[in-house]
Every structure is written in structure tokens, then in C-alpha cells.
Amino acid sequence: ATPKIWDIAGAWLLVRESSGVIESLDGSVPFPLISGLNYTRLIFPLLGAPNIKLMEKSREQINLN
Question: Which pTM value belongs to this model?
């Protein structure tokens, strides 16, 4: 999948506001948006978890550490 900024904006907000953890798999930081940056060609593969402990386990499982 190649999620775009408009695909993840709502989910990002909901996860963060509910005390969840969400990270970009490639280390990019999509928010806050940068004025003048063309987001149409950028992709944001994400990993989300309800808390940091499960995020760490998820990262281990997919070898991101």
C-alpha cells in the first residue's frame, strides 16, 4: 500500500488523541505539514499501537529496531 497524507490524517489524529502510538515505518514525520511541500508523491507507511509497549513489540516483530 502507498498511503498518502490525506489517507492518514484522520487516523493519525484519532490514534494520538486516544493516547495511542503511531509511527512512520520509514522514519519520516508527516506532521506538522510543511508549507509549500508537494505531498502528492510522498507516501507514509505507518505502524500504530494502543501503547508504547505494544509498539516496541510490533517493531521487534517486523525488525524495525
Answer: 0.71
Upper half-sphere CA count for residue 19 (Cβ side, 13 Å)? 2
DSSP run (H or E) holding 24: strand 21-24
Written as one letter, the residue type at 30 is P
Is 2:42 a contact under the CB 8 Å cutoff? no
Would you state the cell numbers that stand for residue 27, as one nine-digit string? 522514519
Residue 37 has pLDDT above 80, yes or no: yes
64 pLDDT band, cuts 50/70/90, is low
- Asked whether the predicted pLDDT for residue 65 surpasses 70, the reply is no
Other Cβ atoms within 10 Å of 34 Cβ, number: 10
Which residues make Cβ contacts (< 8 Å) with residue 21, sequence separation at least 6?
A: 15, 48, 49, 50, 51, 52, 54, 55
